[in-house]
Structure formats: structure tokens, C-alpha cells
């Protein structure tokens, strides 16, 4: 049932035109609290009820409520719901001053640095990290949690002192050794355990190497299109980011007036993100030769190398030559689960001590018991077995989604580079279509896709949608595909032709 509160919020939402939907909902809720529409200690509607009344997804309202809680506008307690705080945050108590400011200005913290403002200005991390069709999300429900839990429980019974203090040795030595043994076999990595530094994912590894191996305004190359997370970290660290085009053979590494010799090159050679191509052998050798000649470092993000569904795996850049000028990055986020926050950086021997010391100084590493548990998980063979199972599962889901695209959208929508690998594919769209608007409409229907155009830095952008298929089963893929297809019909990109339930 609609309430006066809901009518007020709906009216205010009509005047909120900027930002994502959850940001607009957040702003009208903040203003309603500041103005006293929701008095102190008033219980807010449940996320389910408010989402239904506003005509948005429940995730949108949950994200707005989480932000209200973090900023001190509301309190939340099990059994009593979400309530307006008895005392509002100090920066919004002067309602007259707040009323004079634009809504967007009222929600920004004061006195941001230019670097902080740039970070927020480029921020693109999505609040939606699960479900159809979130790219890069593994099926965390299929992970053997009981096995890892048993290993952890045993370690917790009598933990060693070294596992309970800060790490300054590059991470758990057992995990570093397990990784050295594993990577030597499956990725032909040429390194011993001392050359491995455990990180909290790829972002920390990128931050570490960009801080230690480059100076402000140094030129660095990234792929175009490429991963926004790497791009934004490099920007924040003050580097001069040059996007280098990608074609069917991967990055096109050529030094020109537009792309001067870099200090570092960031590349995803095994499964380029987001297009999915792999860097050809000839270009790998050319890039290595260029790095030696011009004395720059190659930062290899071995994204999705574990999930190749046909053919032989491509060798890593790091293992292609002896003493290659390559720093190799990997993570357990896709193979185990993202919240684990364990990644690794394999560095040349000349850099192992400087980078290990810098990592300890910057991040004060920890989580050593879980790192030890993961080392046992690998050494006992559970890791390799889990990857084999997931490879079969993801391959099946990929084939199912490709079949729906082929049958109900047609060849023109098939991925431009249909390599049989990874956790997502690119749904191709006409160059003049608005993939951002289509993604926004899909999200309003509960389907989370990402527009390909947002992965480009330059104006000449290809259009498409990234569809992650790994974390949803065939029935969920079928349901989400029908909702997404309706968005394409509304955009005038395909004809009305209902999919059959027999396809699910």
C-alpha cells in the first residue's frame, strides 16, 4: 500500500536526474530525513516494501539504506528494523544551509583533496556483485566450503605465533611455496617461493608496483578497452595513462608519438578483459623484445587463465623467456571466492626484496591463518579438483547462453571474438546504440549487465554488454535473458519473438 512517505519520495525522485538509481534514492531519503519528513527514531519501511512502492529493485533500496547507515542517518538493529537516528550527523544539522545547496553537494564530505575528488569522480565499482549477468562473478555456492573450513578449524586449534602477527616476509611461506609449485606446472612460471608476494587481490598488486616502479607523470600503457580498476588506480597514483588499442590478436604494442616508450605496460594476455581475446605468440615475443630494448616492465594480469574450455592453455608471458622483464599477477577471487581477498605477485629476483619491503611498509600484511589454509587446500589437491569441476560447469552455462543469443537475437549479436574461455562474454550491439541506457533499463528489471563503451577511454567506442554467466544456473540465465531481450526490443534493436520455456 502506498503511504504519504512514499508519495513524498516519488515526487522528489522526479527531480533527481543525475547519478545512478541507488544514488538518487539515497539523496531523496537523506533530504527527507534532514527536512524532518522522517522524524528522529521513525521506523523506515522495509527494503522490500519500499522497493515495491517506488518501483525499483530491492538491491537499489538496500544499497541506499546501507549508505544511510554508514553516514549516520539511520540505525539498524535486528528485530526493530531501520530507524532514523535520534541525532543526525553534524554536517547536516543546519537545515537552512542544507536547503540552499544542491542535493549532490549535500551528500559530499567536506574538504576533499583533488586526489580524493578524482578518485570519487572516476569511481565505477558496482554495488551489484552477484546474479545475472554480473561479469566475473564465480559461483561461490559451488565452492567446497566444508573442506576449507575443516582445514581452518584444525589450524585455529593451536595457531603458531607467526600466524598471529604482522607479515613482513611477503605472506605465508607455505602458500608462497604451494603457489610456486602449482604455477610452475600449470602456467610455466619460472620463479621460486621467495619471488612471490601475497597481496589482497589485483588492486593491491597494481597499487604496489605503480608506487614502487614509477614516478608521477610517467607514461604507462593499458589496453583499450581495458579494466577500469587498473586504469583508475594508475590515475590516482599520478601516472600518465595511455590506452593502446586491442584487436583480434590482443594489444597492439607499438611506440609512436601518441604512445611514447612507457615505464610499465599492463596487459591481460591470457583472456583480455573485457573483449576476451588472447595475446598472440608473435605479439608476446614482440612485447618482450620491446621491454628489453626500451627498459620497461610488463605487468601481466593472468585474468581467467584457469577457465579455458577448449584447446591448449596459452603460456604465460613471464614463463616464455628466461629472466623476462615481467611481473605476474594472479588472484583466487575467481577460482575460489572474491571475499577471500588473496592474490599474488610474482616478481623478478632483482625486485623481490624492494617490493616485499614496500608491501610490508604500505599494507602491514596479515590473514596468515587463512593463507596457510589455502596452501593446504592446494597441496592436498582440492584446488585443482575444484577448478576442473568449475571448468565443466562454466563451459556448460556459456554454451547455453550462446545458444539463446544465436537463436533469439541472431549472429549480429554474437561476441565479436568468440574465444571459448572466461566467466563472461560480450553481447555485441550496433555502434550507434546506447549501451549505457540499455544497461540502466536492464538493472531496473533486476538484470545487472555492464556497458562495453564504459571500458574505453577514447571517444571511438564499440557498443556491447558484458554478460557474466558463471554464477547463475540455466533457469536463471533463461529468465534474465528474456528480461534483457525485452530491453533490446524497447531500444528498437531486435524484433518481438518470445523465447520458449523448452530452452530453459
TrEMBL record:
Keyword Protein biosynthesis included in the entry's annotation: no
Keywords: DNA-binding, Pyridoxal phosphate, Transcription, Transcription regulation
Xref: InterPro entries: Aminotransferase_I/II_large, HTH_trans_reg/aminotransferase, PyrdxlP-dep_Trfase, PyrdxlP-dep_Trfase_major, Tscrpt_reg_HTH_GntR, WH-like_DNA-bd_sf, WH_DNA-bd_sf
Coiled-coil positions: none
The keyword Transcription regulation belongs to this UniProt entry's keyword annotation: yes
PROSITE patterns (UniProt xref): HTH_GNTR
GO molecular function per UniProt: DNA binding; DNA-binding transcription factor activity; pyridoxal phosphate binding
CDD domains: AAT_like, WHTH_GntR
Residue stretches making up the HTH gntR-type domain: 19-87
Family as reported in the entry's similarity comment: In the C-terminal section; belongs to the class-I pyridoxal-phosphate-dependent aminotransferase family.
Protein name as it appears in the record: GntR family transcriptional regulator
Lineage start: Bacteria, Pseudomonadati, Pseudomonadota, Gammaproteobacteria, Enterobacterales
